[in-house]
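In this section we walk through a basic example: taking a raw amino acid sequence and producing a predicted 3D structure, encoded as discrete structure tokens. The instruction is simple. Fold the sequence below.
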Amino acid sequence: MTFRDSATNPGHTGSWYAASANDKRVRPALAGDIETDVCIIGAGFTGISAALELSERGFSVVVLEAERIGFGASGRNGGQIVNGYSRDLETIAGRYGKDKAIELGKMSLEGGNIIRERVEKYAIDCDLEHGGFFAAFTDKQIREMEHHKADWEHHGHPGLEMVSKADVGKYVKTDRYAGGMIDKLGGHIHPLNLVLGEARAAENLGARVFEGSRVIAVDTDKARPVVSTGAGSVTASYVLICGNAYLAPLFPKVHGRMMPVSSQVMVTEPLEASLIESLLPANYCVEDANYILDYYRRTSDNRLLYGGGIGYGGNDPKNLTGVIRPNMLKTFPQLKDTKIDYAWSGNFALTLTRIPHMGKLTDHVYFSHGDSGHGVTTTHLLGKILGEAVAGHAERFDVWASLPNLPFPGGRMFRVPLTALGAWYYGIRDKLGV
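The resulting token sequence is shown next.
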């Protein structure tokens, strides 16, 4: 069986992350025919996490990236370390059974731990800060947080505390919230510098990363799969597909089970240190509890990074700040005269179940995608699990691969309008507080 696709040109989005990246080197494109133990398609968090895990285990690894390391969601997201998954463990138990919820619960804090361990082990300069705050607008949202806190603690999460309305100001200086919850095991990072640092660590262990090397075909009919680009090929014992929302329709069994969804981010000009410290005194990242949520945090150079909005199918609004800036001013009206220096968008991969989709296309071709908005931590976990599976320890991979994954109703033609209709419904519920 051979999968084929067309080519494109490499590049990076014009984000604050790209402008402040520690490593601006352009890796060479693949040229010629090479061999390796494992070929990984995609140099985002999932692919680089797997590459580092496998390199640590002594495997030879080649990573093929169509654009640049961290080009997709891994280098564009809000930079928040949010534990768990896009669906809570109680929902997972109801869908898949208590045994599966217990297994996923055991792994639910691991993604954040992997990040912190690698930052320390490999001295990765990515502005790591600890602590996250979940903000509630209504008493109903507070009750839901209390319920989730009890369920999390049942699965061993020790770092959660409820926050009263009177104490919100310890974390964010605004009158918008009725209370919330902190996660001491959360935090925030410069995501592009994180993935670049992890890539460098894998390269130092022998991995080879090729940028500008879009995969145009994968031949699985041979004893060892052959992955082809426009200028070369990689023959490998195993292939890992880690493209997520930027994966072209090269693999329809993977691509057809996810939908790209865009989110918009903007970054202010540098603020006076006293001002940004007064707005976010604990330097925790913040995420609100609405269905279509806002998320924001301080940067290392005293800017406010503020994100939100949603575009199903990966469609962006004409004015990237048109949705986000009004929400920022509702939260912080004192920033009404503040200049916006950067604005960009990025796509994440959404599955119908809102649960990541892992599996195999053949005995030697694995895939992982669809982290559904919780990708910073989950990609690190699942990349490591891909590495474990290749190394012959597939127990955790099998747990994820056993979870049913469903196509979007109506197929690709209707997945966007139907999902947008659902988002509109929940958005109205948020506005009405029901």
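Looking at the output, two observations stand out. Residues 411-432 form the longest helix (22 residues). The two ends are 50 Å apart (CA to CA). In the next section we compare this with other chains.
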